[in-house]
Write a structure and sequence with these properties.
Oligomer: single chain
Number of helices: 5
Structural class: mainly alpha
Strand content: under 5%
Radius of gyration: 25 Å
Distance between the termini: 81 Å
Order of helices and strands: HHHHH
Length: 117
């Protein structure tokens, strides 16, 4: 029995040609930073991560909650920023927790403040 080779009609649609072709690199999956110029916060978040490892975002959230319920808004904003840099989802949960804490105390949430640089 003879075997016949049937070539692809177009070389671009050949599975072998697609596998061997070079693709253009796409955007990085974690390239979602929309704010530029906050190197101070990024540096602090990386330093915090180096100290606490994979639990760094949870530790930053604990620090932010502690500062919030102690009434220290500047420290809360700082730790919330570190938490947001490390884990945005955890930071959104922190915002919900602190907003609920304000509601139970009868205080309206204020606009976010920033630390002087």
């Amino acid at each position: 029995m003879t075997v016949h080779f049937a070539a692809s009609r177009r070389s671009t649609q050949s599975p072998l040609a697609r596998a061997l072709s070079r693709r253009k690199p796409g955007r990085a999956a974690n390239d979602n930073c929309t704010e530029r110029g906050n190197d101070r916060m990024l540096h602090a978040a990386l330093h915090h991560f180096a100290r606490h490892g994979l639990g760094a975002a949870r530790e930053a959230r604990r620090q932010a909650e502690r500062a919030f319920f102690a009434g220290d808004r500047a420290s809360y904003d700082w730790w919330h920023g570190i938490c947001r840099t490390l884990d945005a989802r955890l930071a959104r949960g922190l915002e919900r927790t602190t907003a609920a804490g304000l509601r139970t105390e009868g205080v309206a949430p204020s606009a976010p403040e920033t630390l002087p640089q």
